[in-house]
Amino acid sequence: MSQGLIPATILTGFLGSGKTTLLKRVLTEAHGQKIAVIENEFGEENIDSDILVTDTNEQIIQMSNGCVCCTIREDLRTTLSDLAAKRRKGELDFDRVVIETTGLADPGPVAQTFFMDDEIAESYLLDSILTLVDAKHADSQLDTRQEARRQIGFADQIFISKADLVDAPAVDALKHRIKHMNPRAPQHAVHFGEVPIANVLDLKGFNLNAKLEIDPDFLVEDSHGHDHHGHDHGHDHGHEHGHEGHDHGPGEACNHPHHHVHDDDVKSFAFKSDRAFQAAKLEDFLGSIVQVYGPKMLRYKGVLYMKGSDRKVVFQGVHQLMGSDLGPKWMPGEKKQSKMVFIGIDLPRDILLQGLEGCLV
């Protein structure tokens, strides 16, 4: 019998951001879901000091609430394939997998495991990458550690913990900063004692779905390629923070100082066009971009309007690995357009935007 694909969530975030608190909840609380938690490395905040029996040789431990905790002794691939095999034979019962990466790990290779390996791809579906950010220490961590910035770039969903320990303007400034690095990940301030676990886990953030959820204003960025400093801050000042009387046009300077303090190397930009793409040209261009810049490309995703196809094409990638799929048909009267977002480290925005422009019909 086919049990369908097992959804997997990758949980990443720095030391102290609350991953352990969240995992303990998953492993002990009566949430009614059977979850296999995979500890990917042993960091300082190792979960097993509190819950797990440390001197056991057994790699898989059944928890009292029906969850399974598994500490990785081999590589992730082996562990995932083991778990799936035990589930098929009925030796283990679980509905989903949560993989914790320790504080400074790069989630890229973990995410790639789900794409590169056929056996894994036939058993699992990567549901989403969650990044936990500690509101109190985030600014200094983001200033000093590229790994921290990368974790933001990879995220499908961002949870800001410990927001109650800092004042509201600081949380606000942090959200703005994160939004520039990654506009496609919704951000939520959370207290892990209170959030329903379902909100944390079942997010379908990574799935190739036919909508690209970016703040619509983010896509309004002008695409004329002039690089003045106002353009990619267009979506976050104005009424929502009560700055009155700042109706400056896109070319004028924006004087809200907190938008300009950080020039992070992880940045995002969007491409949008109402003209169709030529499939062969786009494939060649993206292929060559990924060859050259793949290591610096964290996440990219798009819903595309292709010449000659009556269906949307959805594509996304992590580093050099790119996948695409036919989406639903364009509805009668629906405006056909392509929307793409690229998140990466010092990516050559102009080369990418001009190149994409060159692939249009």
From TrEMBL:
SMART domains linked to this entry: CobW_C
GO molecular function: hydrolase activity; nucleotide binding
Gene Ontology cellular component annotations, sorted alphabetically: cytoplasm
Sorted UniProt keywords: Chaperone, Hydrolase, Nucleotide-binding
Family annotation (SUPFAM superfamilies): Hypothetical protein YjiA, C-terminal domain, P-loop containing nucleoside triphosphate hydrolases
Region of interest called Disordered, as start-end residue ranges on this chain: 223-260
Function according to Swiss-Prot or TrEMBL: Zinc chaperone that directly transfers zinc cofactor to target proteins, thereby activating them. Zinc is transferred from the CXCC motif in the GTPase domain to the zinc binding site in target proteins in a process requiring GTP hydrolysis.
Name this polypeptide is given: GTP-binding protein
Record organism: Pseudaquabacterium pictum
